Amino acid sequence: MFKFYGLLIAILATALTGCSELTLHREHRPEPIASFRSDGGGAPIRRIAVLPPYCNQQTASSVNDLEMTFQSELTKTSLFELVPITHAAMEMHFGYPQISSVDIIPGDLLFRLRSEYGVEGVMFIDITHYFPYGPISIGIRVKLVDATTGKIRWAFDHLFDSSNPTTSAEAQQFYLKNSHDNYPLPLDGSPILQSPTRFSKYVAYEVFRSLKNIPENPETSKVPVKSAD
After folding, report:
1. How far is CA 174 from CA 76, 206, 217, in A?
2. Nearest-angstrom CA–CA distance, 64 and 51
3. Structural domains of the chain in order of their starting residue, each with its CATH number
4. How many other C-beta atoms can be found within 10 angstroms of the C-beta atom of residue 86?
5. Nearest to residue 156, comparing CAs of 171, 174, 165, 144?
6. Along the 229 residues of the chain, how does pLDDT read in single tens digits?
7. Which of 152, 139, 68 has the alpha carbon at shortest distance from 105?
8. pTM of the predicted structure, to 2 decimals
């Protein structure tokens, strides 16, 4: 009888201990966030110039950290050969360190990138919002543009807000899957929800999860280009 009660107490203690931690299932991954893609005939893009992220809110160090994170996650897709273009290179070749995907781009920008770097596409990355304190939120707009035609081949625009329950849960799923930590997440908050560096990795992964190297659609819209005259 005493052994039975001892076993029952041990089981209850284990159950109560488990209630103090949050464990997320790793198996489920939802569909990527809705994004624009062009479909149709045409040659795939194999080599792209990745422009430095455009941001008018944060210091250079914050932007540099995000730039490395996004390049790393884009590289992991194995879709393209990447040619990173630095702020210094942009300044030297075009007279400005960065350009937004919604700006009217100079008429020779795509031509010069194609000629000097041998690229078939250009990727614009805009940091539309960045709040690195809890709750962390990052807004990203990305466009992949055909360097020959100026047509937008793929685009993504979304605000990742860690205070949103769905975003929070998915970020924690990402952390569990990619972290080397082998313990459950505590109820008082996951490390990824407290670190802008960790959270930005989740954001970059989600951005490029919907990216496919697909042929060009002749009906796809073009980016606005300023006349070279």
Report:
1. 15, 10, 33
2. 12
3. 32-209 (3.40.50.10610)
4. 12
5. 144
6. 444 445 444 444 444 444 334 444 444 556 666 566 655 445 678 999 999 999 875 555 667 788 899 999 999 999 999 999 998 999 988 888 899 999 888 878 999 999 999 999 999 999 999 998 889 999 999 999 999 888 898 999 999 999 999 999 999 988 888 876 554 555 445 788 989 999 999 999 999 988 876 655 555 567 766 655 5
7. 152
8. 0.75
> For tokens 């006349």, what's the residue?
227
